[in-house]
Amino acid sequence: MAFLIGGANSKTDDAYEVSNSLSHRGDGGLEWTPGSSTNRRTWTISMWIKNPVADTFIWGTNLSGLDYVRAEIMSDMELGFRFYYDNTVKDIHTNAVLRDPSAWYHLVWGVDTTQATDTNRVKIYMNGVQFTTAGGGGGFSTENYPVQNTDGEWGHTERHEIGGNGGGAANWPGYTAEVYYIDGTQYAASDFGEFDADSGIWKPKDAKDNLTFGTLGFFLEYKQSGTGTNSSGLGADTSGEDNHLECQDLASIDQMTDTPTNNFCTLNPIAHTTDLGLGTFSEGNCKVVTGDAGNAAHPATMGVANGKWYFEAKLSAQSGSGTNAAFVGIVGRSPLNNTHYVGGFTDAYGIDSRSGKIYHGSDSGTSFGDVYDTGDIISCAFDLDNNKLYFAEDGTWKNSSDPAAGSNGHSITAAASTQDGFYIPAVSDIGSDNQATWEVNFGNPSFAISSGNADANGYGNFEYAVPSGYYALCTKNLAEYG
Questions:
Q1: How far apart (Å, rounded) are the C-alpha atoms in residues 201 and 197?
Q2: Residue 455 sits in which domain range?
Q3: Residue 300, φ and ψ in degrees, nearest 5
């Protein structure tokens, strides 16, 4: 079995596949300034997003801080939409909140201010369901529509941004995928996605050829990794209109394979062992700086009970007045109610940077190779079919072990015997005066790698070769092996 925290829209199996997404990292966006105005009354934006964070902007445009149109995640995690023009604010906030950092959400904003009925002037959809006054989709907490025939700022001759508000503030920290801007038509969610006939899960569909993009319209698939404003850049428009967007603080490493049709594991910012050592997350939840007030284990978003799995974790920094220490390994769910480091629980196993020992609960540790230090990449392979755990340092497997052959691994308790019957990857520091910076690669690295290795199914991008029979933690692999 596989356990996904939240897991909305986490698996699709039909022919249409989304290949790439973009990690905005909180400081990277795609921008453009139209040379002339287009239809400012009727347009549609459709996109998939992952990792919503409070008080951040998904997209927007800003006329020198005055009139603007934007979409954002509010402080209470509600989805917000704002028209601001002629010193008039028109806000629409949903009752639904986007709290799941592991899920891909599909959002559509269909605007047509020419409509006589005010509720038809802005239509907002999430995962195929329209929010309505009557409570559809959860309804609205705030509902103020623009006046009929209002010319909004979207489509005007000013700075527009995907991954920000158009003014350079509170930029989007997560991922976007399948970004459509339709100039001149108000489309519905069903024009971009559909419910799976078997699972009922909302999924993307091949929509490009059935849409009229208009003069300024575009479609961002993130299939190119360059940073130029052209067909080879991350902001390449593949609609056929050639309305390419400009990269701002983006690099080729920001092109991801974590998508709505193959959702990858990341660290989970809302699951941790204690508030004492709560870490600071970044890089699309692939990086954490642990807190310095006490022990805290930071688990990932996916847990598994069987199969063979692989991930990498780079120890980017260690600091503290005491003896520096960092841990990486796997935990069950019960540690989330305790104040301990990875390896400090009965249902956990972690390797210590100070000693190279693997710790499990209150034991004194089992030697498993030498110490590791700042800059090292630790590979973790865990075999839940044979209950073995392996660690490598910069590509060399510790304890002369071989995960592919099943030799010299550290024995672990069967996942079925742990609380809730699964293990979750996790990282931590140890001690109240220590900090560790971990960059965890579940297949979409936040740090530069020199080689590039996928698993046998072609998923993931790792520094070191994935052992034969082991797989990246993503929904395609979970569906087959989890």
A1: 8
A2: 275-481
A3: -95, 180
Query: What residue type is assigned to position 183 of the chain?
Result: D
Q: Do residues 187 and 110 make contact, with C-beta atoms less than 8 angstroms apart?
A: yes
234 within some domain = yes
In the predicted structure, residue 277 carries a pLDDT above the cut 70: no
Domain identity same for 244 and 285: no
Q: What CATH number does the domain containing 438 carry?
A: 2.60.120.920
CB neighbours of residue 465 within 10 Å: 15
Rounded to 5 degrees, what are φ and ψ at 221? -110, -10
> For 362-395, how does the pLDDT look when each residue is reduced to its tens digit (9 = 90+)?
788 999 999 999 999 999 999 999 999 999 999 9
* 89, β-bridge pairs: 84
β-strands 68-73, 280-282 pairing: unpaired
DSSP letter at 479 equals H
Asked if residue 464 belongs to a domain, the reply is yes
Using 50, 70 and 90 to split pLDDT, how confident is the model at 430? Answer: confident
Please name the residues in contact with 160: beta carbons below 8 A apart, sequence gap of 6 or more.
31, 32, 33, 34, 59, 60, 61, 154, 166
For the question of whether the overall pTM of this predicted structure is more than 0.90, the answer is yes
How many domains does one find in the chain?
2
Report d(CA 106, CA 462) in Å as an integer.
28
Assess whether 15 and 142 both reside in one domain: yes
Tell me, yes or no, whether 452 lies in a domain.
yes
Do residues 480 and 459 lie in contact, with contact meaning Cβ atoms separated by under 8 Å? no
The CATH number of the domain holding residue 100 is 2.60.120.200
- Nearest CA-CA partner of 368 in 396, 342, 345, 348: 396
Whether residue 152 lies inside any domain: the answer is: yes
| Contacts with 409 (C-beta within 8 Å, 6 or more apart), sequence order | 383, 386, 388, 389, 390, 401, 403
C-alpha closest to that of 299 among 340, 263, 331 = 331
